[in-house]
Amino acid sequence: MTQFVVDASTVLTWCFPDEHSEQAQRVSDLFKQGGTAIVPPFWPHEVLSALLAGERRKRISAPLIQAFLDDLSALPITLEIFETARVFTGIHSLCRDHGSRRTTPLTSIWKYAPACRWRPLTRT
Q1: Domains along the chain with CATH numbers
Q2: 62 CB-near residues (< 8 Å, 6+ apart)
Q3: pLDDT in tens, 77-88
Q4: What pLDDT does residue 39 have?
Q5: pTM of this prediction?
């Protein structure tokens, strides 16, 4: 079974007809092949926030948001929760070792992924 990290912006392209991403297609293919996505704890909030912003901008309707959330909820997506000590030691050390001057939670996860049991998708 393949496990991979997926960004909120990648799955959001599935519900906005004016957006397309090769990355989103690869993620869709991985799900079809039985893969499981690993996401950070704030990921559902990012997805919901973007959908609500899309609704305010008239890019998507409330019923379509609900249908999308229902579909997304059915996918094998697991929230990965890192203990504070793990972030402050392992991720901090990796970022420092690789010359990262700036770290966001998602880039931390991308950098830490090789040391975990799952792998990130290759970014395009």
Answers
A1: 3-81 (3.40.50.1010)
A2: 55
A3: 998 877 777 667
A4: 87
A5: 0.68
